[in-house]
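Note to self: keep these together.
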Amino acid sequence: FEDETQLFEKLYNDYPTNVNFKNGLAISYEKLGSTHTKLGNLQQALKYFVERNNLAQELHNDYPTNVNFKNGLAISYSKLGWFYKNQLKDNTKARLYFEKYLALREELARDFPGFAEFVRGLELARNAMKSLEE
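Structure:
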């Protein structure tokens, strides 16, 4: 994943207007965040999840009607929420990200009621919020 990320960083730096390179870099950051979480490198993992979220926000802001970018932003909020809840034991920050996650999942499920992934995603987002009450 580190090699993949380095490649996407180079491509994105060389071609900053290429949306596919930017999105690829965002996904690579998510993979590294997940990997570092499993390795117990929590600060490194957080760094990558934040970078992923920053790129996802930029992509969604630049292309607000692109469903894939909205979904990607929802996923990045989910990852940060779960990271804060489970790894850093910070339910206050987890709630901030879960609220954003839930809002996007509500929009996606409302706008695409026939798309099972978005309907299921809404259920997952609601469960994430409920997990903070446990």
